[in-house]
Amino acid sequence: MTNTSQTDPLLGRLIDGRYQVRSRIARGGMATVYLATDLRLERRVALKVMHSHLADDTNFKTRFVQEARSTARLAHPNVVNVFDQGQDDDMAYLVMEYLPGITLRDLLRDYGKLTPEQTIDIMESVLAGLAAAHRAGIVHRDLKPENVLLADDGRIKLGDFGLARAAANATGTGQALLGTIAYLSPELVTRGIADTRSDIYAIGIMIYEMLTGEQPFQGEQPMQIAYQHANDSVPRPSLKNPLVPPQLDDLVLWATDRDPEQRPADARALLEKLYEVERAIHAPHPDAGLDATRVISPTGNDAQATTVLAPAGAAALTSSYGGGFGAGATTQFAGPAAQVRSEATATDAVSKLASVSRHRRGRGWWLFAALMVIAGLASGTGWYFGAGPGALVAVPSLDEKTAQAATAALQNVELVAKSNPVYSCEVPEGHVARAHPAPGRLLHKGSTVTIDVSRGHQPNTIPPLGGVPIDQARQKITAAKSLVGTQVDTQFNAKVPKDAVISATKATDNGDITGGGAFTQCDTVNLVVSAGAIPNVVGKPLAEAQAALQDVDLKYGAGQAKYDDNVPKGSVIAQTPADSGPVHPGDTILLDVSNGPHLYDVPDVTSMTPADAKATLEEAGFTVTVPDTFSGLPLGIFQDGTIVVSKETPDAHSKQRKGTNISLTLGLKG
Q: Per the UniProt record, which residue ranges are transmembrane (predicted)?
């Protein structure tokens, strides 16, 4: 089994005595992002660590710290939160909010292009976060789909302010262009100058890419793309995707105008226009049977003519007045098909003046009444949409609030809270996990906002894992919606097959759950996996024993050298430990090696009688062979002491193993 810590030394490391690194999420040009656990606050965080080869570069380190300061100044639901910044030895790091999910780039890679409605929904959140940055005087300067995070719970956040800089600093880029070439504004390419309008240009390119599935400018070399940004206008998205509404076409062209003066001043201006586009796209079409009213003012000193187009099938009603009104004034009113002539037919001047007076008074009252009605409607409409039920209010940020505090925050802006209990891995019990619609969205007063209130971790049951192969164990844990610890411990065990689970424990309290039992979803299970039995190398030659240990990733060390009557010289007498443990890959096994059998000195028994010689040799641990006769005669006929040992085989004072047989040769006492 491969140990992942060999490929990345930070995995499993405790940073600054607080952040336990669990796994790697992504690697970028300046830093690597890891998933870590904040042991102090018991929550998962994203740990961004600057590459070690950049640690000595003052400019990079300053830019890295600037990201923490820039983002920490922004408290907005659509901006990734920065919790901490520090340095551990020579390693600079940021601690950020962890958002499990994908990036906008991943979404585009999977789906190619998005619908106008999906594009508007995502860009409303992105622009809301960017507007907060612009309001704080911060220019992002690296806007691209990779830096838009789409969380699993529906939240959309803008991250990676590594190139951000205060807008008041004139934001020159210096020797080299910073940011991704596909999203650089013309002024950045030609003059190296960036402000809030440069961010707007990048947003326009992103909208184009979301609607069409490709970037507007492409080339084999970065300089080719940069040249097109500086010299060409971004085409309408509808040329690539006919389903794009003209309002979105116009929005993209406005945001990507090559002249920064012609673009929206900042993200807030573009966001307000995006709201208008959204309302225009979803607005009902006017009734096809009615024609619009057209007012025509012909040239002339005293002449005015107003034409009101009648509905289909209607005729015009004409009244003509002469004298006292200047040049002739003709007014056409919508009317029935039958033409009605004016009753002003008096033949004398008095009758005409009276008729004109009556008409003028009647028309004056009618105009006054119409103005009063219009004023009333305008006032009522203004109140309804300004302060009444039709007013629009933004959904407040409810992150990390308790359910009671979230309800109060919604009531303060005259919105209604609806609680929806949910289980959550990240959010503490009783706190808001998510709001629908998302914070920042504009709603009419009195609208309902659903808040998902965390019930904590969902109760769960872990099946028995002891003796289960590691791959199956992972599947069982994942199926139970729990997590497998990133550091899987490996031990040698003679009773459990290789690559099977020896034991399983809870990461929170090390409680043993090898045999299964009660648990909670989203918690972590730590596994100990068998590497098989430790090889038995007793009796093997030393070189062969060493090779057998190396084959299973065990080291060997010199134990004791001992004499052994049963093990040949140079072979292993014993190994420590043998099969008890725990023993892990990379541990050392001590080997005791045989010096061969122990040898003893053979006593000199020449000149002794056979009986004395035998006793002496047997006392020294040897066996003895004494002839029964001498010169063919039985020994018993010789006087005691006459016959003695003249020779012993093996020779006297030679080194022999205990139990060796010594043969005696007899002769006459001389």
A: 365-386
